[in-house]
């Protein structure tokens, strides 16, 4: 790819002009597109929520992408939003091995594990349902509470950032699902989660948003529901005592 073209594509990406990126690259004959060009095309398609098309583009360069963590990340991203969570989990695990401790990878790795675990529970419940002829609605679901409802319903908060907040709370839920009931240990996990949410403040600000009153109440309500679900007797204000918001 010519340097001027590449530079322009990067500028368009920074300006969220993803349609322009797709149009420009699609104007290049497929035989003339190199690995980087196809990668940028797929990234733009993912950003436009054209996940299936992005995945198809990435699979055309699969051999070249075997050892590239970014290729596996983008493939996993496509799979995740196509709701193919097991495939997404596989790709993010590979990404993590190739590029350990990347924050975005760890976040999506957590989300994928959560989705796979939830589907597993639902499948097990369906199996029990069929065997006992108990209505599905009568079976208690492990994730019967709703995460951050008000934040997801308010356009002021970008969903991808709300997802990051949720990911931190999901880590606490996983800990509780293992049967941990020690108050000090649970509080320690909550403190860590809230501190991680504090660290997201700058990203919210960069996206013209803020962890403010609605967010605070939504996070607090979710934490309260989590603790109630698992029978943990910690006051909500104590549970989120590390908050900066």
TrEMBL record:
Keywords: Coiled coil, TPR repeat
Coiled-coil regions listed in the entry: 176-217
Repeat region (TPR), residues: 69-102
UniProt keyword Protein biosynthesis present: no
Coiled coil in keyword set: yes
Domain of life per record: Bacteria
Protein's UniProt name: Tetratricopeptide repeat protein
Species per Swiss-Prot/TrEMBL record: Paenibacillus marchantiophytorum
């Amino acid at each position: 790819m010519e340097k001027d073209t590449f530079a322009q594509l990067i500028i368009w990406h920074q300006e969220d002009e993803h349609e322009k990126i797709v149009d420009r690259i699609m104007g290049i004959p497929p035989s003339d597109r190199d690995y980087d060009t196809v990668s940028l095309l797929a990234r733009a398609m993912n950003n436009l929520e054209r996940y299936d098309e992005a995945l198809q583009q990435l699979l055309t360069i699969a051999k070249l992408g075997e050892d590239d963590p970014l290729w596996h990340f983008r493939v996993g991203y496509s799979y995740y939003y196509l709701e193919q969570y097991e495939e997404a989990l596989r790709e993010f695990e590979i990404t993590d091995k190739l590029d350990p401790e990347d924050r975005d990878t760890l976040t999506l790795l957590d989300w994928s594990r959560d989705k796979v675990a939830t589907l597993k529970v639902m499948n097990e419940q369906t199996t029990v349902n069929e065997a006992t002829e108990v209505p599905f609605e009568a079976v208690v679901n492990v994730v019967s509470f709703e995460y951050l409802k008000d934040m997801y319903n308010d356009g002021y908060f970008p969903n991808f950032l709300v997802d990051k907040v949720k990911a931190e709370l999901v880590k606490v839920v996983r800990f509780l699902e293992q049967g941990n009931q020690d108050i000090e240990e649970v509080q320690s996990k909550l403190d860590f989660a809230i501190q991680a949410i504090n660290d997201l403040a700058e990203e919210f600000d960069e996206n013209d948003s803020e962890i403010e009153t609605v967010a605070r109440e939504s996070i607090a309500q979710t934490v309260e529901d989590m603790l109630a679900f698992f029978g943990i007797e910690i006051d909500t204000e104590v549970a989120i005592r590390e908050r900066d918001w």
